[in-house]
Design goal:
Blueprint: H1 18-26, H2 31-37, H3 43-50, H4 56-59
Protein name: DNA-directed RNA polymerase subunit Rpo10
Subcellular location: Cytoplasm
EC number: 2.7.7.6
């Protein structure tokens, strides 16, 4: 789905960091170090990015029910 703009727990803005996080982790970097470099220190915010599953492309193939 779409990455939330803010953390559900604390309200910090995290939406802008997801693309950088996803790109660097896909290149083989350690997720922990990437989050540290992006200055995401709180556990709740790290959880939001680390556990996000991006499956919007799979959902978009289905037509809406009217």
């Amino acid at each position: 789905m779409i990455v939330p703009v803010r953390c559900f727990s604390c309200g910090s803005v995290i939406g802008g960091a997801y693309e950088k996080f996803k790109e660097r982790v896909s290149k083989g970097e350690d997720g922990e170090k990437v989050l540290d470099d992006l200055h995401i220190k709180k556990y709740c915010c790290r959880r939001m990015l680390f556990s996000h599953v991006d499956f919007i492309d799979e959902i978009m193939i289905y037509k809406s029910l009217k």
